[in-house]
Amino acid sequence: GNSVTQMEGPVTLSEEAFLTINCTYTATGYPSLFWYVQYPGEGLQLLLKATKADDKGSNKGFEATYRKETTSFHLEKGSVQVSDSAVYFCALSERKTSYDKVIFGPGTSLSVIP
Amino acid sequence: DAGVIQSPRHEVTEMGQEVTLRCKPISGHDYLFWYRQTMMRGLELLIYFNNNVPIDDSGMPEDRFSAKMPNASFSTLKIQPSEPRDSAVYFCASRLGTRFHEQYFGPGTRLTVT
Predict the structure, then answer these.
(1) Tens digits of per-residue pLDDT, B83-109?
(2) By the 8 A CB rule, do B92 and B4 touch?
(3) Contact yes or no for A43 and B91 at CB 8 A
(4) Which of A6, A97, A102, B38 has the smallest number of Cβ neighbours within 10 A?
(5) Residue A100 pLDDT > 90, yes or no?
(6) CA B84/CA B113 separation, integer angstroms
(7) Testing the interface with A: which of B23, B33, B94, B102 to mutate, by most A Cβ within 10 A?
């Protein structure tokens, strides 16, 4: 079945370091891809998305490119801040019969230290 | 819009008691999702509705769990009887339309069963 795999955490970085969180997916069709972020004590919120191959999603300095050839959607940021400390979820949304189902990865915890 | 509203935010109950969690989706959204989040199992989709109709309840752990959506602005998740292993954070999310669109999550209900 369809699935999402993320690099295991926790990831600890110093402020201003470069961030990469790997995400790969398995899907039979043409899913939309998302990154969600969960700050402590809160629900998930959308960080960025891409709906077709080669699209680049970007927001708040984060970027991810939909790579169909490698079935990947890696999250990157050039310079992380302490406020980026959170759990990051990669997700795909697929068509399942007549309805759209979302599959989330396990999440990657990021801690940024001053 | 106020976003997805969940109540209560925290619930502590004793084993064997009935627990009812409530959700008000964003007005106009036609999909509603219930998730459970634990450290051990991550984020799990329990059930989702489209236009108030349950579409996929394959994630509901057992018969002790039930969910209803009597109208477009209200949904409940009930656990009867509750057990300590049900302790988790339960999220409700809603979405408008297809897989190209993001889900909006509520703040969650932290359930503790003693």
Answers:
(1) 999 999 999 999 988 766 788 999 999
(2) yes
(3) yes
(4) A97
(5) no
(6) 5
(7) B102
Q: What is the 8-class DSSP label of residue B52?
A: T
Quick one: closest CA in B to A101, which residue? Answer: B99
Q: Rounded to an integer, what distance in angstroms lies between the CA atom of residue B111 and that of residue B114?
A: 10
Distance CA(B75)–CA(B98), nearest Å, equals 20
Give residue A91's identity as a one-letter amino acid code. A
The confidence score (pLDDT) of residue A94 equals 78
* Cα(B105)–Cα(B99) distance, integer angstroms: 15
Tokens of A114: 């001053």
Let me know: does A8 contact A87? Beta carbons within 8 Å.
no
Q: In the block, which residue shows the tokens 């503790």?
A: B112
- Kindly list the residues from chain A whose CB atom is less than 8 angstroms away from the CB atom of residue B43: 44, 89, 104, 106-107
Q: What is the mean pLDDT of chain A?
A: 92
Is it the case that residue B22 has pLDDT exceeding 80? yes
